[in-house]
């Protein structure tokens, strides 16, 4: 009986083991500049950022504040969970991530449902993104309540990819592009669907690896 090369299995194992670290590094490197350009002006209370949010300025501020804590506490929870360093703070970071992500996502979902900016090209995909985050976070919470650690880890990673996608959506909005509504809508959908699909492939890669032959 032929044996399965161990390289395939070890490669799958490495992907599964190092995926959280890769997401953590990529998220911070790419998210911080966008967060600085968008969230900081709002959190500073400067009037200009709120000109586009007349009628829901308070909700915009709350979204920026809770989203900021969500972004960085989620990164901290991933880092602690992956490295196992300062693990006593893992529950604190994870709790902060979930508790601040909840209002950030609910506010985003609500504003997009009512289409506060009268721009359905972005309201539909970003509203769906907020709903997807709430679902992933609920699954992560359910898993940890039932002590399903591996499932919890995977759902937290999925949810943080969606957190990062919130930032990516805002980053795309900063680009000096004039796109037709149809193309703009497609681009907004892709900003979170493609990262989520890539995340899923990495998380499930080992599940599709060839099995070792018995006795090898």
Account of the 3D structure:
The protein has 216 residues and is mainly α. Helix content is 76%, strand content 0%. The chain contains 6 helices and no strands. Helix 2 crosses helix 5, helix 4 runs parallel beside helix 6 and helix 5 runs antiparallel to helix 6. The chain is globular, with a radius of gyration of 19 Å. The protein starts with 5 loop residues before the first helix and ends in a 12-residue tail after the last helix.
Key features of this structure:
single chain; 6 helices; 76% helix; 216 residues; mainly alpha
Low-confidence parts lasting 5 or more residues at pLDDT below 50?
none
Number of strands: 0
What is the assembly state of the chains in this entry? single chain
Total number of helical segments? Answer: 6
Average of pLDDT: 81
**In angstroms, what is the radius of gyration?**
19 Å
Largest sheet: none
Structural class: mainly alpha
Shape: globular
Order of helices and strands: HHHHHH
Helix fraction by DSSP (H/I, runs of at least 4): over 70%
- Tell me the β content: under 5%
Tell me the span between the first and last alpha carbons. 10 Å
């Amino acid at each position: 009986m032929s044996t399965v090369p161990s390289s395939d299995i070890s490669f799958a194992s490495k992907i599964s083991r190092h995926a959280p670290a890769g997401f953590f590094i990529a998220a911070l490197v790419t998210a911080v500049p966008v967060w600085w350009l968008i969230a900081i002006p709002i959190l500073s209370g400067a009037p200009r950022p709120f000109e586009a949010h007349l009628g829901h300025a308070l909700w915009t501020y709350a979204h920026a504040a809770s989203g900021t804590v969500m972004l960085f506490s989620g990164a901290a929870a991933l880092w602690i969970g992956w490295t196992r360093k300062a693990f006593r703070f893992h529950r604190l970071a994870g709790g902060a991530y979930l508790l601040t992500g909840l209002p950030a996502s609910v506010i985003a979902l609500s504003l997009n449902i009512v289409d506060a900016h009268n721009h359905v090209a972005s309201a539909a995909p970003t509203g769906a993104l907020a709903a997807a985050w709430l679902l992933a976070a609920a699954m992560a919470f359910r898993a940890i309540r039932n002590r399903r650690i591996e499932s919890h880890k995977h759902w937290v990673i999925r949810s943080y990819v969606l957190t990062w996608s919130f930032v990516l959506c805002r980053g795309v909005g900063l680009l000096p592009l004039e796109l037709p509504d149809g193309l703009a809508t497609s681009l907004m959908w892709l900003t979170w669907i493609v990262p989520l699909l890539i995340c899923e492939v990495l998380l499930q890669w080992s599940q599709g690896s060839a099995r070792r032959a018995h006795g090898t």
